[in-house]
Amino acid sequence: MRAAGIDFGKVRVGVAVSDELGLMAHPRPYLDGRNIKQLFASLAELRDAEGIELFVVGLPRTLDGREGPSARRVRNFARLVEEKLGVRVQLVDEWLSTKEAAGRLQASGLDTRRARERVDSAAAAILLQSWLDGGAARR
Known about the structure:
- The chain is α/β, with parallel strands linked by helices.
- The chain has one domain (2-138): Nucleotidyltransferase, domain 5 (2-Layer Sandwich).
- Helix content is 47%, strand content 25%.
- It has a 5-stranded mixed β-sheet with strand order 3-2-1-4-5, sandwiched between helices.
- It is globular, with a radius of gyration of 14 Å.
- The N and C termini lie close together (10 Å).
- The mean pLDDT is 84.
């Protein structure tokens, strides 16, 4: 099963796609999160071009583990993805995935501007890879 990881943000939406075997997550260019209509059109294109059967969407929590306003936005987004695109969505804890992605990009030597352009999709790849490593794709 092909899955796509999504790191949903107000401005940028990070995207990653699993390989055909469901072993590796590969980042894709981020999508513009400011235009929801265009965002859904882009996700539909991704679904069709890559054969996506499941979107794995990061669910943000506060540092004490509770869900705040960002989590409510993500839950609403996930519901709309299922309704509009007809694809299952699984929410997964995105605990510090963006911070981890930023650290990895910095360690790879990218300058701040280029790292900022890639951090959202790198975070999506981290959460999708974590989901794949957990064996969820094989269940």
